[in-house]
Amino acid sequence: MKTILEVVKAGAGFLERAGVDEARLNMEHLLAHVLGCRRLDLYLRFGEVLPERDLAALRELTKRRGEGVPLQHLLGSVEFMGHELVCDGRALVPRPETEFLVDWLIAEVGRGTLPRPIRLLDLATGSGCIGLSLAAAFADAEVWLIDLSEEALDLARLNASRLGLDRVQALRSDLFEKASGRFDWVVSNLPYIPSAEVRELAREVQRDPQLALDGGPDGLQLLRRFLVEALPFLQGSALVALEVGHDQAKVVLDLALQSGWSEGRILQDLAGVERFVILRGPLQAAPKVSDDEHEEPTAVGS
Predict the structure, then answer these.
(1) Which H helix or E strand runs over 239?
(2) Which among 196, 194, 241, 247 has a CA at the least distance from the CA of 222?
(3) Judging by DSSP bridges, how do beta strands 119-123 and 183-188 pair with one another?
(4) 212: Cβ–Cβ under 8 A, 6 or more apart, which residues?
(5) Whole-number Å distance between alpha carbons of 167 and 176
(6) What pLDDT score does 288 carry?
(7) What is the mean pLDDT of residues 249-256?
(8) How much is the pLDDT for 294?
(9) What is the 8-class DSSP label of residue 118?
(10) pLDDT, tens digit, for every residue of 192-215?
(11) Which of 7, 80, 114, 133 satisfies CB 3.0 to 4.6 Å to 108 for a cystine?
(12) Are residues 108 and 54 in the same domain?
């Protein structure tokens, strides 16, 4: 029989040999998951002997982690902006860069730099991490979640329900195809990886849906469409925040200004990477698409 400390050390060694980054931290998370405790609680229990039933469950999880299954998928959840979200293969694993953008937007409203959103759209919502975090922060905002993947929308609906955000509306749509009305804010993390580079991504990232990764030959296929198709759905000089690839921000900003957007800026993430493009819609609103041509969204609780 092995103690918890011995199991952590042995498992971390296995994961390290399998090429898993932060192997010790991963192992501690997996063991805490099996034991149903906080990771930090393990430090008070290192001398305890681990029962065989827990060892068996841990062996299977450790094996799968060594094969490249993301830690978040094995744990079944991920923390994002202080909210626990269900996380599985139906959508991208929420990443710290995206959390930085959401935190920045909320902070800018608090500083009075940005107006509070009245109608807000999270396009290509995936797990719903962006839209749901903003819905929780701005309780009076009407929030839509749009995605082309029905599986991703099911995950977003589940997360909305778990967070008590049933007022949020969800709609399956190819970008703005079935959207209606105008929005004050549109926030989106569209697929931006060039097709040829998808197969070169880390094995954990390749467990994310292909649909959420592949941005076409140069990674900008959907971003180009977005910049044109979004304009009729913006309320005056609406705010648009886009997460893009590490080398795409300047190109996307230039494309936006050429497409009729009134102004824009590039925002760096905590690592100093130009990761986000912040845009303002046209000073004069574009012609509105008739609401009659679009389906109404459904509330996630319906």
Answers:
(1) strand 234-243
(2) 194
(3) parallel
(4) 91, 92, 124, 126, 149, 152, 191
(5) 21
(6) 54
(7) 97
(8) 45
(9) S
(10) 999 999 999 999 999 999 999 999
(11) 114
(12) no
pLDDT band at 29 (very low <50, low <70, confident <90, very high): very high
Can you tell me the mean pLDDT for 148-167? 98
105 shares its domain with 174: yes
Measured distance CA(153)–CA(291) in Å, rounded: 22
Say if residue 72's pLDDT is above 90. yes
pLDDT of 1 reads 82
Q: Does one domain contain both 11 and 110?
A: no
In the block, tokens 């079935």 appear at 178
Termini Cα distance of the chain: 51
Contact 275, 249 (CB under 8 A): yes
176 vs 229: CA distance, rounded Å: 7
What tokens appear for 12 in the block?
A: 């971390």
| Number of structural domains in the chain | 2
3-state class (DSSP) for residue 266: strand
Determine, yes or no, domain membership for 74. Answer: no
Q: Is 242 helix (H, G, I), strand (E, B) or coil?
A: strand
The percent of residues in the chain predicted with pLDDT above 70, rounded, is 93
Residue 289 has pLDDT above 80, yes or no: no
- Residues 246 and 116 occupy one common structural domain: yes
Q: Cα separation of 163 and 137, whole Å?
A: 12
CB distance 191 to 165 below 8 Å? no
Are 215 and 192 in contact, with CB atoms under 8 Å apart? Answer: yes
Side chain identity at residue 248, one-letter code = Q
The domain in which residue 36 lies consists of: 4-67
For residue 270, count CB atoms less than 10 angstroms from its CB and return exposed for 0-12, middle for 13-18, buried for 19 or more.
Answer: exposed
pLDDT value for 297: 52
Backbone angles phi, psi at 286, to 5 degrees: -70, 160
